[in-house]
Design goal:
302 residues; alpha+beta
């Protein structure tokens, strides 16, 4: 049956470790990171509409100009591949904070690609969608990988999907201020004497199959330089550790922080402490399953 609209979940991600490697020939800074998807999520619904692309955003999160929104760019890219003119309405409900290192824009982009593909009867396989994703943004391929846990290199286009870790309670907190990613890269370069020296080491895959082993690898090369500018980040990470977080780190290039806990009661106590520090706080869980799309056939749209 021909679909009239498709709704897709767009989960946030955290980086269970993140290392800055050398500058590549392309000029981009190579990274090595372990992505983990979490239940804090935006929702993307795409509807067949009049010619053109219209974006409506709910949730009070600043997503910037519509023509630069990654969901809009995903529509443009997929319709270019289809060889058709776009005729789509996008309804984006935002819950993931912006400038947080949580991949919200990239996840919205991936969810839009998945939803549009479903809207048109799945004309593209996952490999074709991943090819589009690489063009659109560094984190987008992870959100299309089909796995909630993946080891990634370079700009995120090199991915190794891993068996998901058992679900754990997680808290995410944002200080309300941010440091631009290019500034964070520049500060890391200054601290390393003007360059990006490789720090990668061989990581046996079996070390990424349980939380205790992952906790021994947890680090984020951006965290020290961003915390210099935003001291609340260091205080928040200390608070998370004090309350029993097995992993307590800044997410991506910041400026949110997160803590992974064994039990929800520890997580909830940490949330109260973080609120006391003046941070915005979200409770979530790590994911074990890939988000799915909900297809609404014509005549059944609510």
């Amino acid at each position: 049956m021909r679909a009239d609209s498709v709704t897709a979940s767009a989960p946030a991600k955290v980086n269970l470790f993140l290392r800055i490697l050398g500058r590549e020939e392309s000029g981009y800074h190579g990274l090595e990171t372990l992505f983990c998807a979490v239940s804090l999520a935006d929702t993307v619904t795409v509807h067949r509409g009049a010619p053109g692309i219209r974006l409506v955003v709910d949730g009070g999160v600043d997503t910037g100009p519509p023509d630069r929104n990654l969901a809009v760019r995903a529509v443009e890219r997929l319709y270019r591949e289809l060889g058709e003119a776009a005729a789509v309405d996008i309804h984006l409900t935002k819950r993931i904070p912006s400038a947080a290192g949580l991949g919200g824009g990239s996840s919205d982009c991936a969810a839009t690609l998945r939803a549009l593909n479903a809207l048109h009867g799945e004309p593209f396989d996952r490999a074709a969608l991943l090819g589009m994703a690489i063009e659109l943004g560094s984190d987008v391929p992870f959100f299309l990988s089909g796995s909630p846990l993946a080891l990634a290199w370079s700009r995120g286009e090199r991915l190794l999907s891993l068996p998901p870790l058992p679900t754990r309670p997680i808290v995410i907190a944002h200080p309300g201020v941010a440091m631009a990613t290019p500034d964070a890269f520049r500060r890391v370069a200054e601290q390393r004497g003007g360059g990006y020296q490789p720090r990668s080491r061989s990581i046996p895959i079996e070390q990424l199959t349980d939380w205790a082993a992952v906790a021994t690898l947890a680090e984020n090369d951006f965290q020290p330089v961003v915390a210099e500018q935003i001291p609340l980040i260091a205080h928040a990470v200390d608070a998370l550790r004090d309350h029993g977080a097995s992993v307590a780190l800044m997410a991506g290039s910041g400026s949110s922080v997160f803590g992974v806990f064994d039990v929800a009661t520890e997580r909830d106590a940490a949330m109260e402490r973080l609120r006391g520090l003046g941070m915005s706080v979200w409770a979530a869980d790590t994911l074990e399953d890939e988000p799915v799309c909900r297809v609404d056939p014509i005549g059944e749209v609510g």
